[in-house]
Amino acid sequence: MYAALTHITTHLPSRVETNADLCTRMDTTDEWIVTRTGIAQRHLAAPGESTADLAVAAMTAFAAERPGTRVDTLVLATTSPDRTCPATAPEVAARVGLGGIAGYDITSACSGDLYGLATAVGLVDAGIARRVALVTSETFSYFVDPADRTTAPLFGDAATVSLVERVRDPDDANLGPFDLGSDGAGLGLLEVPAGGARARALAGRGRPVAWESGSYLQMAGRPLFLEAVARMSASCRKLLADSGSSIDDIDGFVVHQANARIARALCEELDIPDGKALSNIRTVGNTLSSSIPLLLADSAAAGTTTPGDTLLLTAFGAGLSWGSCLLTWNPR
Amino acid sequence: MESLTVLKEILVTKFDVEESLITPDATFESMDLDSLSQVELGTTLRKRLGVRITDAELQAVETLADIQRLLTTEH
Fold first, then answer.
1. What ipTM score was computed for the predicted complex, to two decimals?
2. Mind telling me how many Å the CA of B4 is from chain A's nearest CA?
3. Probe site for chain A from B10, B14, B17, B40 (most A CB atoms < 10 A)
4. Does A265 sit within 8 Å of B40, measured CB to CB?
5. What pLDDT, in 10s, does the model give residues A168-222?
6. Contact B39 A226 (CB under 8 A)
7. For residue A143, what pLDDT is reported?
8. Cα dihedral B56/B59/B60/B64 (nearest 10)
């Protein structure tokens, strides 16, 4: 059995926060943010809107775009689940009329889409699933300190649905190979400390947890930048070597939109020429697990990516976690 | 091309630093560059000149003269 990514649906919340909006509540400027991050605006969930809500909106849009498609598994990649327990995927499935199908979350932060694609391909290849809706949904704006000018401008909210389904002809299989990696030694470079068992263990059983002391993202920008470039470049090189390809064989470079400067440094490191690297960070910011499918959909809509293109996807994020894969863009 | 010339060219073309600000005692702050610019400069120098400057060495840098010294010592 063979698996193919055949469709991507995206959903951006309608509320847009510009850099000018940010300047009203923190000591920064539009130029400062754009120069240092490449981001001019980001979409934010509406008041009261959560990760499950965005995921439901994306699934509803997907159902409209692909009517009659019978999904049998829903994998939700998110860094901002609605609850510590249970997973968010079953709620999303139930709310869109898919109650009863297999549904679970995966947590690989900004690498979530790549880990999710690998998971979906595995499920289909193994005959466990026929059509997987890989949903990415993030409302990470709730997890950053709104007064912190180093992190608040970076993140935007978004949800996507990627359909990974069984295909008969091996020539139609369009994902892979994959290279995935992680290194927990770097967990402190990017973390939200509160909310899990570690914070509860530190507080002690039966004692209240001081959530406010670690409920926002903590980021060590400089070492993170170095790790991001080193890990993604090594992963891309390994992937290309394993597949017998070179940068010349790649039509488009789809790098996780964390920061335009990381993407530029990565292109420089890998000798990727100007114009091959796709980008939409200016209008959406870093949408974590939604970043890559959002970029794929945007570049396809803009005509930058066209059917038959060979794309190199790569991502890096908290964990640390990273991954790369090849995709032949062939939507249906 | 001499390493100092390359350093100047990189600062002007890649980091948009005004040429008049590029002096031996210039600091990243005086050139309006942040700490990530040091990291980016390290990557670019390695690609352009084949010189490997560690992040610890870059963090210890105070002026452009310090970087010039790193470029002329063996790495």
1. 0.84
2. 20
3. B40
4. yes
5. 999 999 999 999 999 999 999 999 999 899 989 988 998 877 776 789 999 999 9
6. yes
7. 96
8. 130
